[in-house]
Amino acid sequence: MSIGIFDSGVGGLTVLKEVRNVLPNEKIIYLGDTARVPYGEKTQDLIIRYSKQIVDFLIEKKVDAIVVACNTATSLALEELNKTFKTPIIGVIEAGVRTALYTTENNRIGVIGTKATINSKKYETEIKKRNHEIEVYSKSCPLFVPAIEEGIIKGKLINQMVEMYLDDFRDKIDSLILGCTHYPLLKETINSIYPDIKIVDPAKETAQDLKEILVKKNLLRNDAEKGHEVEYFVTDGQDKFKEIGIMFLNENIDHVNLIKL
Predict the structure, then answer these.
(1) In the Cβ-directed half-sphere of 83, how many Cα atoms lie within 13 Å?
(2) Catalytic position from the list 3, 48, 68, 70
(3) Distance CA 152, CA 145 (A)
């Protein structure tokens, strides 16, 4: 028994990290679709097609549940995936929305993500569905992902980017949803510039949602069993994935498998 986690690239490793914290005995199969990253600029039809191919691969690996650790794929493909497959599949958006609604005190929530995630208005829809009085401020931040993947997470350049994107939120919001799995690596920088804004990382709550599903279906591994195993798969660039992945996880990645979907 194992858990499947997929993302368009390395960003989903922030979700994997939280899943391992919450479910230390589970075997995890992680797939990063690095040959076709980024998803944020692609059409919904294409993202659905890519996501179905990945889910097919993970089901062949006999996973018991799947986490779509990609906000863009969650926004545009999750509904279709749940219609198509019987395996439990969850995304990262609902968890982030629940946390933000609990966190906000002034009923003003900010959301940042890729263009596709922001244009889908999925976060706004989910927030308004639960509380129509909430004001939602959304912005796409297309420069963040390439900067993070180059290891630029601190310093003058990233500070300038953060201010360029987020200064519109100053004195408006009190909670900010990180609507892209790369963005948790910028938490420290964002906090230092906007100390009054509470940052919501959907990955933590998503890991709890996954645990609830496994408990309900009686799929949790026994504590005595060997766990914490992770098998990594990518569609391109194993060495680059390992290099960036070490930065995301703060630990070594021994082996990455290359596959073709």
Answers:
(1) 5
(2) 70
(3) 10
Question: At residue 252, what is the residue type?
Answer: N
Cα separation, 110 vs 105, in Å, equals 13
Whether pTM exceeds 0.90: yes
Does residue 141 carry a catalytic annotation? no
pLDDT digits (tens, 9 = 90+) for 148-200: 888 899 999 999 999 999 999 999 999 999 999 999 999 999 999 999 999 99
Would you state the pLDDT for residue 149? 82
CB atoms < 10 A from the CB of 133, how many? 6
Of the residues 37, 58, 180, 185, which is catalytic?
A: 180
Q: How many CB atoms lie within 10 A of CB 22?
A: 14
Amino acid at 1: M
How far apart CA 112 and CA 82 sit, in angstroms, is 25
State the Cα–Cα distance between residues 8 and 112, nearest whole angstrom.
17
**What is the sign, positive or negative, of the torsion defined by CA atoms of 220, 209, 121, 172?**
negative
Annotate 118-140 with DSSP letters as a single string. HHHTHHHHHHHHH-TT-EEEEEE
CA distances from 175 to 22, 99, 190 (A): 24, 10, 12
**CA gap 258, 188 in Å, rounded:** 33
pLDDT tier for residue 217 given thresholds of 50, 70 and 90 = confident
Cα–Cα distance, 113 to 135 (Å, whole number): 17
Angle, alpha carbons 212-21-93 (nearest 5°): 55
For residues 175 and 197, is the Cβ–Cβ distance under 8 A? yes
Q: Which residues pair with 200 in a beta bridge?
A: 177
